[in-house]
Specification:
The protein has 13 helices and no strands. The chain is mainly alpha-helical. The chain folds into two domains: about 15-130 and about 350-385, no CATH class; about 130-340, Up-down Bundle (Ferritin). The protein is rod-shaped, with a radius of gyration of 51 Å. The chain starts with a helix and ends with a helix. Mean pLDDT is about 80; it is low at about 1-10 and about 440-444.
Amino acid sequence: MSQSQRQDAVPLSREAARGVRNARDLEGHITWLDTFSGTALGVLSVASGIYTYLGVSSLLDENGAMSVFAAIAYSTAVSVGIFVFWSYMLRLFPAVTTTRARTGLLAAMGMGSLAIVAMSSWLNAAALAGSAAVEQHLAKTVQDYQTALERAHEIALTGQALERDVARVRQSFEDLSELEAQGSLSGLAGRGAVFRVLRQKSAELSALETQIAEQTPLVESAFTEGNTILSRMRALTVEPGSVEARSIEFSEAAVRLQGLITQLRQLSVAQLVERAAQDLAASVVLPELDSSTAAGRADQSATITSVLEVLGSRAATLERAAQNVQALESPTDVTYTPISAADAVILYARNFVPSWAGAIAIDLLPMVLVFILAITHGAIRHGRDGTGIEDTLTLAELRAAVTALRDVEQLSAPPPPATTAAPTVLTPDAAPKQPQEPPREAAE
């Protein structure tokens, strides 16, 4: 360095020197971390590929060699894609300095992350929680079937309760017939026309009451069998073993249970009671008035008219009770649909948040490394800001630079001029003398 260069050189301030030292330390750390960052990224990619293979295998219906090859090919492509994508990001994103370049790379990173989640993360989640998600689907289906069974049974029992209403109406007609037999209604004691009308309707209601009573054992039997099937379905949701095999048996039980729920809905007697109530007042066979006098026949006619009015009123009451039963909310139609592990994970994603978090984290964890490197490189550039290259050279770099400079100077220096030597003439006197042997005594 010349004298003028020594005078123009400005020493670094303490803060600038500290920034240079910090930048140098950070560069040393990054150099050391680079020795295993690629290996770590490769391990993450391979791990994601393994779980992706398990997820793809759960989606394939066949178990042949071609299916295995397809799953391996897909998982390998995913591993390579993840490794290459994050390798690009780890190298390029920390190196760019302009806002425009960083914005573009951030957009590319977002698109790539979405692509990774779409092609890998949900399959990883299926591998991590697929069986549990299918079991969750089975448990929810059991709950839906139980609700439907209980609702159908409740409606059927409400319909069976109409037996008491029918019995009350029948009893009222029987009581009226007894009064007529004593002559308290028409004034004519005996079993005449009015008595026969009352007994006719009493017999109809008695037949309806018997028909309703016959339905009760069928309702209870169907409900008991349904509960037995539900118990088996609950056991299938928690039994050890392959969830696919359990799903097959679960599907068969669901079909039988659906048939029982339909049977319970058909056992409801509300419609039967409604039709019987409508026929109760509409279909009346009027007997011939059998009084021997005109006044008696007039009394019988008036009594029958009153009985028909009472009959219509009781029938309307019974019909409204039956309609109220039919107005009850019907049980929800439940149909069990087998789903794959991947579909179950998506359908019940809220119940498997930790599994989803782990599946996504194993693919997007390198994003954190990208931001760490970007922040570190920014700190290095900030520490070197305002300093020349000569201020950032280490001693080893300075020695290498001096050695290189000397090599360049030697190569660029002109060669020394060549000199011609005069020929030497040997004379007898100038002949080289032979060395004399030392005396023996001296040698000894």
